[in-house]
Amino acid sequence: MERPSLEFNLPDTHEEGKLYVVDSLNNLNKLNVCPAESQRSLDEEENTGGTGESMAGSNTRNQCLFFTFILTLIVSLALVSFVIFLIFQTRNEVDQISSRLLSEKKNIEELKKLNSIILKHLNQSRIKE
């Protein structure tokens, strides 16, 4: 009795499953990256069976990726500009605080001198009495 072997059918089914998963992931990725208009080009590509008309879908995808790249660059530039603005603001604040500290230091030194003069004067007046 010969039993039919399932080994011949399983790898084909397994490979088909892998291809289906990869194709589904690719479609999901295309949907996430590109807007609804590119979905129409994907549908057209599937309907044409990948013939010469698929170049239009490819161009739409390339344009979508290009605009996504440009948008990413603009957002990055805006964030970098904001960080540079914050750095300058912080530097200005630190400069103001340091100038205040220097002026306060001068005031404290003057008060110490006045204090020492007053103490000397009080000590001299006590000695005279």
UniProtKB/TrEMBL annotation:
Residues 37-58 are annotated as: Disordered. It holds the Pfam family DUF4577. The chain crosses the membrane at residues 64-88. It comes from the Eukaryota. Keywords: Membrane, Transmembrane, Transmembrane helix. Coiled coil: none annotated. This is LSME1 protein. It comes from Sylvietta virens. The lineage of its organism: Eukaryota, Metazoa, Chordata, Craniata, Vertebrata. The gene is Lsmem1.
